[in-house]
Amino acid sequence: MRIMSYNIQVGWGKGLEAVSKLIKKYDPDIIAIQEVDRYRKRTGFVDQFKILGDLLDMHGGYACSYKGPISEGENAQYGHSIFSKFPVAVEKVHVLANREHRLPGEESWVREPRACLQSVISGIRFFSLHFSTVDDLQAKQSAQLAEIIKDNSDLPVISLGDFNNDYYSEPLKPLTFLRNGLEEIEPALSYPNGKRATSAIDHILLSPHFEVLGAQVIVDDEGISDHNPVICDLKLK
Prior knowledge:
Elements: E1 2-7, H1 16-26, E2 30-38, H2 48-56, E3 59-67, E4 77-84, E5 89-95, E6 115-121, E7 124-130, H3 135-151, E8 157-162, E9 179-180, E10 202-206, E11 210-217, E12 230-236
Parallel strand pairs: 1-2, 7-8
Antiparallel strand pairs: 1-12, 2-4, 3-4, 5-6, 6-7, 8-10, 9-10, 11-12
Helix pairs in contact: 1-2
């Protein structure tokens, strides 16, 4: 089974067709995609979730991190998705921890609401997500996600997405009970895109039920997105 995670930057690089072409080249069975717009002015009011599902010809589930602002359109949404060759049963969208205030000098977008999509695909429970960009919120979100996963561990678990920090960082420590699926290729440099990548922030984390057959970072020097996709080939033990 091939698992992929990819932050596509709402297709601003070279468009959704280029994104889907890259994805299909590597033929994942299941892919989590971060930064997916629906009906937003900045991306032409289209439903990127539906477009991607049609281009990939895959089943899907969507997590809306936040709606609006009204300047982006009445039905504007921003979030992330999971697509699969197999049916996707969406169980819940978890609202992740945030804070009401900004720290001195902090940009307003730092406090964007974040979400985790809990779904079941082929007897495996997936937790796909996009964490905050700052350490204190990542730490809260990691601790929250760890508890959610432990409360829903009746099935094999895969948690994947853009964590915005290194697997070995202090904020992500609550999640280290899950295996780093990219461990054999660390540092799995995924941001920014291409050979210039300096940060390993996109992860595929696994419960003990899986054997890792291989892992790779797809080096995108074309600028299809500002992230490199990551891939993990797995086998259920």
